[in-house]
Amino acid sequence: MTVLSTPETHTSELVLSLRGIDKNFGAVQALTAIDLDIYSGEVVALVGDNGAGKSTLIKILAGVHPQDGGTITSGDKRVSINNPADSNNLGIATVYQDLALCDNLDVVANLYLGHELGRGTINEVEMEKRSWGLLRQLSARIPSVRIPVASLSGGQRQTVAIARSLIGEPRIVILDEPTAALGVAQTAEVLNLIERLRERGLAVVLISHNMADVQAVADRIVVLRLGRNNGEFRVADVSYEDIIAAITGASDNAVTRRAQARVDSADAAAAASEPIDTALPEEDRP
Amino acid sequence: MTTPTSTPPSAGADDTAPPTETVRLAAVAADLQDERLIQPHGIGGTVRAFGRRVRSGDIGSLPVVIGLIVIWVVFSLLNPNFLSSTNLVNLTLQCAAVGTISVGIVLVLLLGEIDLSVGSVSGLSAAILAVSFVNLGWPLPVSLLASLLTGMAIGLLYGFLYTRFGVPSFVITLAGLLGFLGLQLWVLGSTGSINIPFDSWIVQFAQQWFLPDWLSYVLVVLTALVYAAQLFVTANRRAAAGLSAVPATSIVVRSVFLLLVLGVPTWYLNQTRGVGAMFLLFLVIVVVVNFFLTRTRWGRSVYAVGGNVEAARRSGINVTGVYLSVFMLCSTFAALGGILAAGRLAAANQGSGGGDTNLNAIAAAVIGGASLFGGRGSAFSALLGILVIQSISSGLTLLNLDSSIRYMITGAVLLLAVIVDSLSRRTRASHGRA
To answer: Which of A21, A162, B382, B425 has a Cα at 20 to 30 A from B393?
Structure first.
């Protein structure tokens, strides 16, 4: 992996830029005017509640379905991602939550699945040699690459899936919930791996529900809420509460509206001069 | 994960390892550096490693080989003629036709699919061969080609129905079982049975052609040499790439073992008629299919699709192409098996491919170790399985047992094989080798 063997210095360069991305499924507006910038050597976390549009955005990047509106620019030219091959050509590798590994095949076969080396017959020796090289560079702790993937632990399987995404020498790696099914130690291992990807100068897009993981490894957090951008933070200068507030829309949701209404009605009762219907939220007042 | 949690997640941790560690690692092959690996040392270690694999359910073809030995011992005790050279020569000839069909079954089983119509397809192919060659007077090669192409077209149809409409292969081929049996009867017409001239070379090939003794020994030695050479080349390339390589003594031991496994039966068969050309064809098919399964991208795709279709699709494998090619190969091998059976019988009739052909072919693949759940098995499953099936059949015939008993015993053996498959699958899962 030449891309991995030459660790770059920390020069962040804009590799992909999304502007005003719209996507609807029938009557549902899944994404509305989403902006997202992806820089090399940076981990950007994409967070949001269920239905916020994270998966839809990822699928647009992976070429599963194209966007309905908005532009994607790579470098300084506009690109369109209509199918997974376009996504690959742009150097985007996606690791889905279900990993998509073949349990009956060994690690080497899984790493090179669909891209086997060798002419005519498969060059197993070269593939095994490069597999070890790749896994060593990621400091992945896999005892043997000649055992079926089924016998690996969850973290090791995640490692194999991430390592496989690097075979095509991508510039951007998208990880969908990489720690969702993992234990404490395995999660730490995957987080180490994500940091190593960043050190290699790759752009990493991390989707996670786990704020601890996000704060541990991400540089920047992009919050989606109900299909819209709902804030962008640098991890260094944001608190856990602020992120949660952005995700849930805590300044404007059912819980806060109700709390506000109680305060208002209490005020109203105290003043005893206004009708009770002022308890409506601000925007509903006539 | 055995990573100590106290290790800081800093990136350079591994670069700062003491130099002595690096020196130690450099001396060890790249694939053996993990200290958690249990490494076998010497012959005792190899035996222990083998025992560990068996206990964890990674049993491969061990149960079949043991089963075969038990069957042979039992039958030779009941009837000394069972292990006579004459009977074993017959056994090999009986294996070839259904064994060839079984190779195709192994391929569809690897995808986790099934073809229930191989018997009917083989019967149809025999009927087409007989009618076109005998009744219509076509040249034999054209008749053979017509039979094989019919098989191929049937497989293409199955593959199309499966990939286009998503109908389960079980149902498609069940329809094929009936439909092509009807077509076979229609092709044969009112006579119902057509004899193939005894002096045609397809009958000669199936009944009369045996390798000369010297040629059979030359082939055995050549096979062992090619095997050894191939192991040596791989070992050298692995050593050059800094990976662990099989030691030379092990290569010699394995090659001599193969030489004996092939040589002794060849010598024994040569005591009477020898190795039949038809059986040799079957062996060549098994070896060639095994080569394509293990060494080519197509074979890797077959295992990948059998293991996880969605993963294969996302890796860019042409899943539709894999299904089409495998269904086509299976039906083509069924047609070839039908041709061989017709040659051996010197006739095609309404019973061709009927009776137990279908189930014997499927049972052989399963008994030989091809998993019904997909993704596991090898071309050699067909060889081992058909040896078991035909040994039982031949032994029971020698004991003058009725076909009713034969069916029941074959059914029991099939059930046993499927239980072993399921059990070893469960053990593999609990030992993390599923």
So the answer is: B425
